[in-house]
């Protein structure tokens, strides 16, 4: 079981543990980004499905590069929607440089503009 996010099925519903995702948490699901608009729209569809299945209110898509919204833009939108903490989740097949270096760096830059918000 994940210590930050635990999803149930439709019959069981959503299950959270004490340090899981709360009502004032924003979630950014970030992919690489593409020059192809159609590819980027797939992330929007996934985010909508994730939001519907989990019941989390503040869930935003972001693209690491090549497309908008950026991590910075989505971070700001989460805060604007009332998030007091923002969780950034990479949406990649495998961990690599983007996962371990680029996304944390871009997230740290975005967080500097919102010191009132934890991450």
UniProtKB/TrEMBL annotation:
InterPro entries: CbiX-like, Sirohydro_Cobaltochel/CbiX. GO terms for molecular function: lyase activity; metal ion binding. PANTHER family: SIROHYDROCHLORIN FERROCHELATASE, CHLOROPLASTIC. It comes from Cannabis sativa (Hemp). SUPFAM superfamilies: Chelatase (SSF53800). The keyword Metal-binding applies. Keywords: Lyase, Metal-binding. This is Sirohydrochlorin ferrochelatase.
């Amino acid at each position: 079981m994940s210590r930050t996010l635990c999803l149930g099925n439709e019959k069981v519903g959503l299950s959270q543990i004490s340090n899981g995702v709360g009502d004032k948490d924003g979630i950014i699901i970030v992919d690489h980004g593409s020059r192809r608009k159609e590819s980027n729209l797939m992330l929007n569809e996934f985010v909508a499905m994730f939001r519907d299945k989990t019941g989390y209110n503040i869930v935003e898509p972001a693209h690491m590069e090549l497309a908008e919204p950026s991590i910075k833009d989505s971070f700001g939108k989460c805060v604007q929607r009332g998030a007091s903490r923002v969780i950034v989740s990479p949406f990649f097949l495998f961990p690599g440089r983007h996962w371990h270096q680029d996304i944390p760096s871009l997230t740290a830059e975005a967080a500097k503009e919102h010191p009132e918000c934890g991450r």
